[in-house]
Amino acid sequence: MTNYYVQQSIQIQFIKIGGMSNSSIFQIGTCGQITTNDFLYNTGGFTEPAPEAEKNGNGKPPPSITPLVPLQTPR
Question: 51: which DSSP letter?
Answer without folding.
Answer: P
